[in-house]
Every structure is written in structure tokens, then in C-alpha cells.
Amino acid sequence: MNNATKQNSFDVIIIGSGTCGATLAKELTKQGKKVLILEQGGNQVLKETFSGIAPIANEVPVASNMKALRAITTGGSTALYFAVSKMPPLDTFMSLGIDLYDELEEVKRELPLIDFPDELLTPQSIRLRQSMGELGYNCKKNLIMLDRSKCTSGYSYDAKWKAKVFVEEAVRAGATLTNQAKVTKILVENKEAIGVEYKIKSNVFKAYGAKIVLAAGSIASPKILRDSGIQDVVNRGFYCKPGFLMFGIVPGLKGRESFVGSMGAEFEDGAELGDTNMSSTLFKMLMLQNFKLLNLNGHAKTICMGVMLHDSMSGELKENGTFNKRLTDDEIKKFKKGEEAAKRILKNAGAKSIFKGGISASAPGGVIRINEHVDSTLQTKFRNLYVCDASLLSEDMKVTPTLTLVCLSKYLAKHLFSSIKGEKSPREIVEKEFNQ
User: Fold this and answer.
1) 115-157+241-361, what's its fold?
2) Quick count: other Cβ atoms within 10 Å of Cβ 379?
């Protein structure tokens, strides 16, 4: 056993540094485990500017004329998300043999989880809420992962919790973070995962671990599993929660920078209407994307609302690793109803000019199934290979996922710590063989 192998052996290898990978790394290093984090992206300073967003934003086709946006960087897509949260479906997880009650209580104490504060509602959001109420929609404020102390002047990108904070905490505790590392496959011997093969530019590397956790996200994880010998993922299709934005220009409105998602309302047939007023930077980017150059400086007088559909499970993961599905005629009709409802709300709010943005989607969900592709400890059919990311969230778990994923990661971290505790670490095994 040579020194290179000895140095490249870990208790746990985590693929991905988003919500799940970051939480796992923090929890396991806190328990003294030797952890390697492999992140496909770089390690940029996170900021909400054109130059900050462009290098990390990555759009991936998931359905006909629809793309999902993700961030490829340390901390994953929390670099671009809205920080809106919903409580995890505890009963659904319990029915699968996973009890997240204690983890949820821990997360409530650790993360800046609050009801959206009334004092942060902007003129755009207040006007939208008033209009929706007048038309009979029951608007409910959302939970948001927000450090209120950083919002003294209103909207603040830095106030939103980001997974990168957990990664940095893990690195300070001894974890190894390797950026620009694209994992190509899991190394498996006798149906047991023993390591990971990854590339940095054109160079191929291998790392070995007692436990391997795939937390690369629901776009990347299924392909890595397929390439590693687990072929039946995405066998029931996927959902992607397609949606679009409606914009209305209100003469005389003096709006401000806004947090997206202060409130929302259920619409008929499994659709949602929500407040999607935003920061001026995101607004300008969307105007450019939708070729609305005349509206580029119209942030202060524009109200924005979103329409989101809970789509059915369908579609496929192609051999080249790309996702594809088509909306059904019924789903297209629901979208049309949502658009008409949004127009009524915006008109009632005083909008004189209304236009629609392009349709987008979230990352595919329901592609790796608990008690089918992984067991209740999140282990695959290959011993010591686990999955922990949004790909596990089935059609019964269509909630804004961040809070759920932090809880699920804490649950897995406890299992991994317990299972490693009684074993010799790969470092100890290597050192013993090397000394002999």
C-alpha cells in the first residue's frame, strides 16, 4: 500500500456540496470523521450581481421547452435560491421508515427559520396581497431561512442562509474540499462501494472511503448511479414543478428590492400562485432573458407573480444523461387557467401592461425512490453507497425542499456515524497494512 493511497483514504466521501453534502460534512466532521467533499464547481465568493451569478448559473433541459436552473459552486443551488421553506412531510417519511422528528427540532434551533416578517413586505408585495385578498384568494405567508439582523435596510442577499456556511464550518473542522472535481463513477467491488473516480480537467483521480454519499443533486445523481451499475433509476418518470412569471406595470408604484416568495395561495387543480417580486438585479436579468429591453429599468413600478404547477410523474432519463418529458394536455389547460387568474389579480392591482415570462422548471424529483432504489437508511443495493439529495423527494413530498433536505442529511449523518463508530476507518486499515 503506497503513500498516495494512504493519503487518499477517508471515512466518508461526499459527492456534492449543496444542502445535503454541506450538512453531512458539517455533522460528520463535528464527530471527528475524516471527510472528503468533491464539488464539481468552483469556490467563488457568492454575490448577487451579473458577474457573480453568470459563472455559477447552469440551465439544464428537463422537459419540452423548459430548463431547470442550478448553481454549480460550493454550496450548490442555495447560492441562487429564494430561501423559502416549508415543513417536511413527517408522516410521509414515517410511512417509509424514516423518523425526522428529532432532526426537525434540531434544525429549528440551528437555522434562521422565521415566518416572513411583515416589515419586509415591499409596496409590490403589499399591493399583490391586497389584490389577491379582494379576489378571494387565501394568501399565506411562507417560512424563510433568513438572518433578520442582516436586513436592517430591507432586502439583503447575504441574509439568506446558504449551504456554503456549513461547508466552511466542515473545512475548519478538518474536512477536505476539492473543487472542479467531476465524479465519473463509483468504484464497486463485490457489490460494495469502496471509492470514487473523478476528473479535474483531463486528469483522472481516485479516492477511497468506508462510506460514499451521493449528494450531487437530482440532475447529476441518477446519471452517476447508472454509470456505476444501478440501471433502474428514473423508472417511473419524474416531476419538475413547471412554472412561469407574470409581470404587470403599475404607473406611480414606488417599489423596492424584494425577497421572492413572501406568500402564496393554492389554486385549483394542484397549481399555486405566489409573490415573486424580486431584487432589481434578478429583474434586469429576466428582462434581458425575455427580450423586454424597454422594461429593463422598470423594477420599481412592476409587480410580479408566479404560477407553478404540480405536474404528474412522467418522462425519462436518456442514455446520454439528459431528462425529457412533455406536459399533458390537461396540465397545459391548468397552466392556462393559472395565467388567466394571474392576469385578473394583476389587473385588480392596477397593472396597465401585463406580460408573461418563459416557462421554467425545478430540478427533477422522484427519480430515486426510498424503499426501492435505497432502503430506509438511504443505502443503495451496493453496500456503503448512500444517496441523499432532492432526487429522493417523491411526488408525495412536493414541498420547497431545503428544510426537508437538511433534516434528511442530519438523519443520515447519525446513521453513518453509528455505523462507522464500531469499524476501523479506511485510514486505520491502510496504515496497518502499510506498517506490516
Assistant:
1) Cholesterol Oxidase; domain 2 (3.30.410)
2) 20
